[in-house]
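quick one, 353 residues, struct below
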Amino acid sequence: MVRRDFFAAWLAFAFIATGPAGDVYEERATITLDADGKSYSKRFVLRYPDDAAGWNGRLVIGAHGGSGGDNYSRDGQVIGTDEVSLDDVIGDHAVAKGFAYASVDRDGIGGSAEGLNLTKEFASRMRAHVFEKLGREVEFTYLAGLSMGGVIARYAAEDQTTPFDGVLIIVGGGGDVAASRARSKKMAELWPRIDRIDAEAYAQVVGTPVQAQRFWPFMGTSSVGRAEGNVRDDTTGAVVVPTIEVAGTYDDFVYPEILVYKEKVRVHGASDRHRLYEVEGAWHISNDDDAISSFQFVGSRMGLSEATLDAMATGASYLPTVHDSLLLLDAWVSRGELPPPDRSLREGTSLLL
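---
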């Protein structure tokens, strides 16, 4: 069944689709958001169980990686835009479990204070719209951010006025700006002569084991001429809401700084509000995330070999850990059930046992 709804605030296309959990209501639209004295027009998606009785009262806001815009196939064809880029990471799972889910394509705004304020305003608008559609207030709102969206999620977890009841950080940047800049600078210096450098020595610099070296060319090549990194505002580790973080041990984008951030959390006495789950052998993009193709396309433009592009899809999957973490976060926030302690786990190992 297809239903088209047009209304004043948004130009929206809405329809009912049958998914793994039954009928799901979806809106794909453009929304005008006002934040920091600016007005933004952005694409968004909103989904929830079509039967209001099947909604669990929770809303998950997805903060995508990068700065938004188009997604690509490996050969450079546009295959989507970033408001739906987290569907396979968290969105589809959330709706299947009874959550409402919404994400906005920031389209030009990365992991910054501006990105945080835009995301907070979007969350406020979505809470109001879900109430209008489903007839009851959102009980709990969660933010799930990946990579650059994880920077926004990290900022939100430390924000004294955060509108989020809990935060899920997925391979998130922003763990520590100084450490990231220092590591990027060393990588930029060493990568042009990587063939003459001992692999163990480079592993010490990049922060992932030698077994992860098939992933090194992407970050090594991109670090040359870009040693300063993308994140400007540092984090403290003083999280104020329950926060779960998922990392990959082969992730040379952010893993070393995630470990630094964990120490920041400890120093600030916030360990009781933070968990870190490390998936062994997982790279920055999970092997079952369709974002792999965009990274392969970018890698091809950087001149990486076909073998290197193929290797980018050979890491472990961290999506099962992300999916478990959402349920653990909800139980932590809504019922006070503490999640398991920090741990390193193999691909597919359940956290719910």
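DSSP finds ten helices and twelve strands in the chain.
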